[in-house]
Write a structure and sequence with these properties.
InterPro entries: DUF1647. With 442 residues, the chain is α/β, with parallel strands linked by helices. 43% of the residues lie in helices and 10% in strands. The chain is built from 16 helices and eight strands. Helix 12 packs antiparallel against helix 15 and helix 15 packs antiparallel against helix 16.
Length: 442
């Protein structure tokens, strides 16, 4: 080999090594910088998080509603019916000058729905709750309160959760008092729920298992059961397959009418909004994640319980306090140490459109989703994995929409939380990560 060529090769190799070393050093520097920020955030005094939760990101709170009013809210592949309802029913029926949700709270000592729910709560038997002793043992607060003894007192606490959310969004979703009265004024009692689900491209194979079971196991029992699928990030080819083979209504989720942080799929703020959009159209909605599978048995007991209570969720395992970030408790205004109760899973849920459900469950759940810094916050992805053993601590991971609905329902029902829970065994199962190729190829 000629000396000149050899030197040139050595120079190229040396340059490559230098670039790799420089990239490695930059990676270490960035990692250390990010870790220092994480450590700084982790060292926040939980008492000071209240302001962080209240403030959120003001520039993400409100979009231009004049533009939304004139836009195609159904999206390119959405439902014209949904778009018409948002443009017509919401914006034309209610004048924003006539609404003041801050001043108008539902009284908790009057109204048939309050008395009915209180009566149900009083008559229900006590439940032996499997509380997590780790929570109280590791509580840093000098004192830890307990839930109020009566349903009305706990309901009053929920109704006074204070969120930093524009009234425009509550009007848009009919979660202001006039909107709730309007939605519940029509006497509807559907025999079975509308089934709702959603998926992005990475869950396309998983959701084919749910759609297969809908076709083969649910429709033979409930031939008129409607399935509405929301596209939250499918590829063009996947969307084509979904429209061709789902035998369902396919809609595009209207991210553009909500705050920008809702577009972060991993923050799950879109799920409460999706459920509420459907409750504006239907009186009975069942949400299922892509991982839900059906056994082919009737939902008689679940349907009965949803109609009686208004909401049903699946009981979970780990405690809410361990699996919810302190920022969320601070934003809502609850003491973390009180929530040593098992979490409630947002994988499979059912909702009946009642004054109780809209006012005491959906409004705070949706409001927390809309407020950046409540359900979702900066660097929230780092809390997805739940450590165990010696690494476990309060708030060591976060469950987003699941954490928030667990806080709300535990505050409302606490030691009688069985009232709002159903067991999937016998009617279905949850199989996360099960990929199914059900759709034919095109």
């Amino acid at each position: 080999m000629r000396p000149g060529l050899k030197r040139r090769r050595l120079t190229v190799v040396s340059a490559i090594i230098c670039v790799m070393l420089l990239a490695y050093m930059c990676k270490i520097s960035i990692r250390d910088y990010m870790q220092s920020n994480v450590d700084a955030e982790s060292s926040f005094d939980i008492g000071n998080l209240k302001n962080v939760g209240r403030n959120g990101r003001q520039n993400r709170q409100t979009r231009n509603f004049a533009e939304i009013r004139d836009s195609d809210t159904s999206g390119p592949s959405g439902s014209d019916e949904l778009g018409a309802r948002i443009r017509g029913t919401i914006f034309e029926t209610y004048d924003s000058d006539d609404l003041n949700t801050d001043a108008e709270l539902f009284p908790v000592t009057s109204g048939n729905w309050v008395e009915e729910m209180d009566d149900l709560f009083q008559k229900a038997p006590f439940q032996n709750i499997d509380k997590d002793p780790f929570v109280r043992q590791n509580n840093s607060d000098s004192e830890c309160d307990d839930f109020y003894p009566s349903f009305k007192e706990n309901l009053n606490k929920v109704l006074h959760y204070d969120f930093n959310v524009s009234n425009n969004y509550l009007e848009l979703l009919n979660l202001h008092p006039a909107g709730v009265r309007n939605l519940t004024s029509v006497d509807m009692d559907s025999a079975f729920p509308v089934l709702a689900t959603a998926a992005s491209s990475n869950h396309f194979l998983e959701i084919q298992g749910l759609i297969r079971d809908y076709h083969q196991k649910l429709l033979p029992i409930y031939p008129d059961m409607k399935l509405i699928f929301f596209d939250i990030g499918l590829t063009a080819y996947q969307l084509k397959l979904m429209k061709a083979y789902c035998k369902c209504e396919v809609r595009k989720f209207p991210f553009h009418i909500f705050p920008e942080h809702i577009e972060n799929l991993g923050g799950y703020g879109w799920k409460p909004l999706l459920v509420q959009l459907l409750l504006m159209e239907f009186d009975f909605v069942m949400w299922t994640d892509a991982s839900v599978r059906f056994d082919g048995r009737p939902f008689d007991k679940l349907i009965q319980d949803v109609k009686e209570i208004g909401v049903q969720v699946v009981p979970g395992w780990g405690s809410i306090a361990v699996r919810t970030n302190p920022r969320t408790f601070a934003a809502i205004g609850e003491q973390m140490c009180m929530f040593d109760y098992p979490e409630m899973e947002a994988t499979w849920m059912a909702f009946k459109r009642t004054e109780f459900t809209l006012t005491a469950v959906m409004k705070p759940w949706v409001s927390c989703a809309l407020q950046y810094g409540c359900m979702n916050f900066a660097k929230s992805k780092q809390y997805l994995k739940c450590p165990r053993g010696k690494k476990q601590r309060l708030g060591s991971c976060h469950r987003f929409d699941q954490s928030v609905i667990g806080i709300i329902l535990t505050r409302l029902f606490n030691y009688k939380s069985h009232l709002c829970q159903f067991i999937v065994n016998g009617i279905g199962s949850i199989k996360r990560g099960e990929f199914v190729r059900y759709f034919p190829r095109m």
